[in-house]
Amino acid sequence: NIGKKMSCQQFIANLDGLNDGKDFAKDLLKTLYNSIKNEKLEWAIDEDELRKSLSELVDDKFGASAKKVTRIVDSSNPFLDIPQALNAVTYKHGVLTRKTHADMDGKRTPRGRRGWKKFYAVLKGTILYLQKDEYKPDKDLSEVDLKNAIRVHHALATKASDYSKKSNVLKLKTADWRVFLFQAPSKEEMLSWILRINLVAAIFSAPAFPAAICSMKKFCRPLLPSSMTKLCQEEQLRSHENKMKQIADELAEHKLHPAEKSLKSKEAEEYRLKEHYLIFEKSRYETYINLLCMKIKVGTDDLERIETSFFKVEADDLALRKTHSSPSLSQGHMSISCKAEKDILEQNT
């Protein structure tokens, strides 16, 4: 149903410099283009077969005793319909009041769906379940509970400092750029939710896939897999650090060629969108790196101890900033939550 299809020349141009910095042979690319054009690409197996095979995979992985397996369907894409074992580790649970602020790709949620709703939240594995009833470990989840569930892989939780209508509100931005606001019962609970969501995302988020290539040279975000990483924590930390360096370099390069502020063309909008993405990703990876470093330093999986150590460092940094007036010192010891808040506020101005 595409009106203007990609030409062979556009296909070749899209792959410039991607063969370890060099170009692929044009004859090879022409052959590949014609092959795809003459015989379209299709799913290797149909959707029903894929779902069945994924279910069998989970049964093999978790054994016959792990009978409680359910799915969270993000869309019609079968590769996003990944089974979730309900016997995954529970990292936190408690009452949260949710407001949906933005839908997929940051599109503002329609007014009729933006109201505050109270849930019993359970962070289990890389899923934040939002249940109407109180949490019970052995209780099956209803269809409504599953529909409200949120994946937290590659997500970032921050204090919603730009929202003043309610207190103790955190902002959660997901991998597909949906935005949720959550009000916690207290400041301590809000900070605990922020830390644990970000720590789970930092530990288990698998490395990103390259972004899709577009014939229109349009900016595309990388693909963020919802499967768990296979890296150990030290390797995961190095992966985050490498990604952080790549993002920082890309942001610096991006800012060297600013778009004209008066310009309202598609190019200027693409420039602003990419800058928004790079700033957010920089704050996200900074947060992940700080939390993983803290966890490795503490040397435990006990979340209570990690939380205590983290907030002690935060308190020490705050005291240090109050007793010294050096600008460089303040910048160097800015907390991860402050960094994220600052970056997100910059994006909104």
UniProtKB/TrEMBL annotation:
It is found in: Cell projection, Ruffle membrane. Its main location: membrane. GO terms for molecular function: guanyl-nucleotide exchange factor activity; phospholipid binding. One of its GO terms (cellular component) is ruffle membrane. Residues 230-257 form a coiled coil. Keywords: Cell membrane, Coiled coil, Membrane. Residues 89-202 form the PH domain. One of its GO terms (biological process) is regulation of ARF protein signal transduction. PANTHER family: GUANYL-NUCLEOTIDE EXCHANGE FACTOR, PH AND SEC7 DOMAIN-CONTAINING PROTEIN 2. This is PH and SEC7 domain-containing protein 2. It comes from Chlamydotis macqueenii. The lineage of its organism: Eukaryota, Metazoa, Chordata, Craniata, Vertebrata.
